Amino acid sequence: MPDASSYTGEPDVLFSEIILQNNRADPYLLYARLRETPVSRQRDGSYVVSSHAAIRSLIFDPRLSSEDLPPSRRPHTGNPLRDWFLNPIKNRIVTAHRPLIFRDPPDHDTLRRFVMRQFMVGRVNALREGIVREVDRLIDACRGRDRICLVNDFSYPLPVTVICELLGVPQADEPRFQVWATQLATAIEPDARHDEGGRHRTVAAFDEISAYMRDLIREKRRRPADDMLSGLAAPASAGGKRMGDFDLIATAVLLLVAGHETTVNLITNGMLQLLRHPHELERLRADPERAPRLIEELLRFDPPVHFRTRKALGAIEIAGETIPKGAPVILVFAAGNRDPARFPEPNRFDPDREDNQHFGFGGGLHYCIGAPLARIEAEIALVALSRRLVSPRLLQNPPPYRLGASLRGPQQLGIAIDGIQ
Ligand code: HEM
Description:
By secondary structure, the chain is an alpha+beta fold.
């Protein structure tokens, strides 16, 4: 099995090596190799950016576009009406009204402002009590067992319940959108752009989740509630504006998907690191005030989002390279987070770290909108798990990982316990 120590490949294929499934459990040594050339041209014409300084500079650079999503396309059906009329229209609509994470200014900024208005601090903080209750309920449900799977029993159901509550999406529909969300999340993986079948499945999932959201938004307009979807769908006040319907659907889908897998991975990665560093688990149990800094260190050390792709709108000179116009640019946040030029002893998990400007939530215009919510969820979850699981031990180290190289996290995390407190 190739790993970092046996790696002998050329630097211009290093990134394709990194995204192989057998490097998922520990890509960090390969990231160190990447940083030897902070901006590195790959054989497929993409540029991989891995040093903290270069990522930081590019993330604020308006010459990098986020519209780097292949245009939507549906498979041929043999029905001329569909193939030559309906589907091309649908493709144009979906491409023009991508979710805001794939949009550039000025549209991106307008859409983001609508969402930020709904994300007012009050609304996120109001979820706190419900999160504490849900965390306790999920842990209580593990009573009587001597082993649990943290992902299935805890880290997955928690963020899903919270995002449903925030948006006003019925929790009972979760099994349906779990399938759609998993398929849609593949859209940001590098393999996805070359996989025609996968792209068709992604468009099909987007069609289905969009139809679901369209009905839900209609219902919110008929019977508004105190939730984000009702707020986004509400008629504009006099002189004001509201989002167009296609953008509203794409935004609702983005929020539901973005709130799914990422927070699952933060909580799971968090518990994995605490079990690998039992001293830190003890310190957190004794002093829950340590949680905020611990979570920042997790977002640096083992983040849920490892990289994002952009496209160069013009030639960009950086770190001795010239990225040509049109080239895909991969910002490897997780490699920047371990850059020794920025962080002393970057490979040490150190929750006492003070100067911790990581890229766990990205940066610049597209900085994560859900960051305050994700931080609250992870804090409450890790503090409760550290206090209530009696003598937790890892059953498999490293655990099995899901396929995603960008959205990276364990598929399962088996933990043996001596009870629940
Ligand atoms: C631990 C959990 C999370 C992590 C690690 C995370 C990470 C990220 C990152 C790295 C980006 C930047 C993407 C880029 O630069 O292209 C981002 C953007 C975004 N995130 Fe999160 N996220 C998390 C949770 C959430 C949640 C809970 C929500 C929604 C409730 C959310 C909504 C968004 C949205 C809407 C964007 C796009 C912002 C824009 O394009 O302006 N995220 N997130």
